[in-house]
Specification:
The complex is a heterodimer. Chain A is α/β, with parallel strands linked by helices. Chain A contains ten helices and ten strands. The longest helix of chain A is centred in the C-terminal third of the chain and has 17 residues. The radius of gyration of chain A is 19 Å and the shape is globular. The longest helix of chain B is centred in the middle third of the chain and has 39 residues. By secondary structure, chain B is mainly alpha-helical. Chain B has one domain. Chain B is globular and about 80 Å long. Chain B has nine helices and no strands. Classes of the chains: A alpha/beta, B mainly alpha. Chains A and B meet through helix 2 and helix 3 of A and helix 5 of B.
């Protein structure tokens, strides 16, 4: 199985605190990889590094075999055209209509005719089940619709990679299941590599082909969904069985743990 | 182990210095990038966003016309009254025209317009960019390969650099009109002689120096607003705090730069 993204010995810091501790893993091409982990496990930080918003302290992030950590901003902008991201709150530009939001990447990076762009926008919105909403503003939409529109925008440039930051965060179970279904549908229709960051177990079991689990900045699991279910690692079992932490942290303990001084 | 007093003191100084150096670094990078994307990259064929620039021009300039007019008119009247109070005693009341004309064009119109615009638009820039930052919209732009400075700051800078001098020129006229209206009624100066006296008192240099100041103020207000906006990392509360900071800082810097330019013009003009 070919790997689309490989992370090697990645170390990252937030201020003086080490967040990711020399982690290595790979994500297979054309599959849905879920990055799983509790709050404070470093999964959002990892996502920000994968999409190039943050630069690592050390280590490599190879996308299609090329290290993005060492790239200049200009080189990386070329890679960015092949990446689509759905942010947690969808991050649509509030001052623009959905049509303008979706066409924004095309407008900036291509010289397409206005009429062609309109057709593409309609297609993308149709794909996520939002046809007819071209002239709506993001503030007029519900949370689930915003996320759908965010996916349409992320797919505007027909990317190779689609990243999702907590797609079901802040949604009711029915709407969240709808987003999961959409991800499955897109995955069947397009040859894209999906990377989903989440802590929602039902969602993981529905969409994941491959799972990477982070805990306190370290990869504690990498494998298929069945392997995950069969794992006897304590932390994974706690996560899967939804068990509480043995004791509540005091602020000092919490800081010590995220700072890596066990 | 508890750190010694000396360690605490030096640690404090070091941390403060580091933070200040980082701030200076951030500001210089913002200024550098803003000017690059405004003036260098268009030469390389990467045009600025014209429609967004026009929208910003309407917001910064056109929408500020009512408030600028009212304030300039009142300031013109106030200046004429204050000048008349002194000049009446020496029987030189016609010189009200000189005082109103020169102090408005050289000083008061640029600075008042700048303060109004800092309060209206500088704060709006900080709030807009700040809330976009906290809603990850800025990250979204970056992830789409769109430079947020080119996308957000450049149209604002161009709009500000055109509209602040334009508003200042407008305030010059309205302010002088205010002084004129008071003089021909209350002070009983003949309209034509007031007009003549103003023309005689005002050199083109007076107007130009005022406009140069306005241009500099426009740049400062935009950069401060954008800087404070991009600094937002938290939520709504921080957006509010940064917005306030942007207004306070811009007004302060506008006055510092005014002092600088006025001194410069005094010695070299």
């Amino acid at each position: 199985m070919e790997n689309a993204i490989e992370v090697k010995n990645l170390v990252t810091h937030y201020g003086d605190v080490q967040v990711l501790k020399k982690i290595s893993f790979a994500m297979p091409r054309g599959k849905t990889t879920v990055i799983l982990g509790g709050s404070g496990s470093g999964k959002s930080t990892l996502l920000k590094h994968l999409i190039g918003l943050l630069k690592p302290t050390s280590g490599k992030i190879e996308i299609n075999g090329r290290d993005i950590a060492g790239m200049s901003e200009q080189e990386f902008n070329e890679v960015r055209k092949r990446i689509g991201v759905l942010f947690q709150g969808a991050a649509l530009l509030n001052s623009m209509t959905l049509a303008d939001n979706v066409s924004l990447p095309m407008r900036e990076h291509t010289k397409l005719e206005e009429s062609t762009m309109q057709i593409m926008v309609r297609m993308k919105l149709e794909l996520v089940g939002l046809s007819g909403f071209e002239n709506y503003y993001p503030s007029q939409l519900s949370g689930g619709m915003k996320k759908r529109a965010g996916i349409a925008r992320a797919m505007a440039m027909d990317p190779e990679f689609l990243f999702f930051d907590e797609p079901s965060a802040g949604l009711d179970p029915i709407t969240a299941a709808g987003i999961d279904e959409l991800i499955l549908k897109l995955r069947q229709a397009f040859k894209m590599t999906f990377i989903v960051v989440t802590h929602e177990l039902p969602s993981v079991f529905t969409i994941a082909d491959h799972v990477i689990m982070l805990d306190f900045g370290e990869v504690i699991f990498s494998g298929t969904i069945d392997e995950l279910k069969a794992s006897d690692n304590d932390r994974i079992r706690m996560f899967l069985e939804r068990k509480a932490e043995k004791e509540v942290y005091s602020p000092e303990d919490y800081f010590r743990i995220i700072a890596g001084e066990e | 182990m508890k750190p010694s007093t000396a360690e605490t003191v030096f640690g404090f100084i070091g941390r403060k210095t580091n933070r200040i150096l980082k701030d200076i670094n951030d500001v210089s990078r913002l200024i550098n990038n803003t000017f690059y994307w405004s003036f260098i990259s268009p030469l390389k064929g990467r045009a600025i966003r014209l429609r967004a620039t026009i929208t910003e021009m309407v917001k910064v300039g056109y929408n500020a016309i009512p408030i600028v007019s009212v304030i300039a008119l009142f300031i013109g009247i106030i200046l004429a009254l204050q000048a008349a109070y002194q000049l009446k005693r020496v029987g030189a009341i016609i010189y009200v025209a000189n005082l109103v004309g020169v102090s408005l064009t050289r000083e008061l119109a640029p600075i008042l317009t700048a303060i109004i615009v800092a309060g209206r638009s500088g704060s709006a820039f900080a709030a807009e960019i700040g809330s976009m930052k906290s809603a990850e919209e800025v990250d979204a732009l970056v992830s789409m390969g769109i430079n947020p400075i080119r996308f957000l700051v450049v149209p604002k800078l161009i709009a500000m650099m055109i509209m602040l001098p334009a508003l200042t020129l407008f305030a010059d006229f309205i302010g002088i009109l205010g002084g004129f209206l008071l003089s021909i009624t209350e002070l009983e100066i003949h309209p034509y002689s007031y007009f003549q006296q103003t023309i005689r008192a005002l050199g083109i240099k007076d107007i130009i120096t005022g406009l140069i100041k306005a241009l500099a103020f426009g740049v400062v207000i935009t950069i401060v607003g954008a800087y404070q906006g991009f600094k937002v990392t938290g939520g709504a509360e921080e957006v509010g705090r940064r917005t306030t900071a942007s207004v306070v800082t811009s007004i302060f810097l506008v006055i510092v730069i005014d002092l600088f330019f006025t001194t410069l013009f005094y010695f070299f003009a």
